[in-house]
Amino acid sequence: MTIQDLGSIGEIVAAVATIATLVYLAVQIRQNSVLIRGSTYQASNNWNLSALSAIAQSPEAAATFEKGLSGNEKLAPGERTQFAVIMALLFGGFSQQYESYRAGEINEKQWKRVEQIAKWYLVQSGVQIWWQNGKAILSPAFATHMEQLLGPPEPR
Predict the structure, then answer these.
(1) Which of 17, 69, 105, 121 is the most exposed place for a label (fewest CB within 10 A)?
(2) Is residue 108 one of the residues assigned to a domain?
(3) φ and ψ at 60, to 5 degrees?
(4) 103 is in which domain, residue-wise?
(5) All residues at 6 or more sequence positions from 115 whose CB lies less than 8 Å from its CB, including other chains
(6) How far apart are CA 50 and CA 15, in angstroms?
(7) Sequential DSSP letters for 11-64
């Protein structure tokens, strides 16, 4: 075997090692992407859960939340502010999840679950009142998406 033959064998081994390295890196990148998607979804869920947890731990906040869902006219001025903050937190989380869905960071199944929860809130009369002004602090794409999902408002 000549030195040229050994050089050719070395080139073949190097090419195979390069391909194996590229395959390994592709697998690692894919696994990392899956982990990042899961972390993004979990972080968004934690946002909403923290808002709901605060409501669940305080009888006063729970009463305000319940009254707020059925309409702002039942709320005292301080309660109105508290309800608006709760809605801003919840819908801020929903908006964040929508943007994550659009960026491919969460899958459609995960987004559809969140979308149904957001839609449930939006059909509550008190949330509809909040939505008229509150949507301005959210992602315009999310606000438009939710309004299209709900359809045109019913005449009063």
Answers:
(1) 17
(2) yes
(3) -65, -45
(4) 39-150
(5) 98, 149
(6) 52
(7) HHHHHHHHHHHHHHHHHHHHHHHHHHHHHHHHHHHHHHHHHHHHHHH-HHHHHH
Domain-located, residue 115: yes
Is 136 buried (19+), middle (13-18) or exposed (0-12) by CB count in 10 A? exposed
Cα–Cα distances (Å) from 4 to 13, 18, 44, in that order, read 14, 21, 60
Q: With DSSP H G I counted as helix, E B as strand and the rest as coil, what are the percentages for the chain, rounded to 5? A: 85, 0, 15
* Span 30-59, pLDDT tens digits: 776 656 655 655 665 676 677 778 788 888
Scanning the structure block, which residue is given the tokens 């809605």?
A: 87
pTM of this prediction? 0.70
Q: pLDDT per residue over 2-38, tens digit each?
A: 888 777 888 887 777 788 777 777 777 777 665 665 5
Whether residue 58 is contained in a domain is answered as yes
Asked if the structure places residue 132 within a domain, the reply is yes
- Provide the terminal-to-terminal Cα distance of the chain, rounded to the nearest Å: 93
Q: How many distinct structural domains can be found in the chain? A: 1
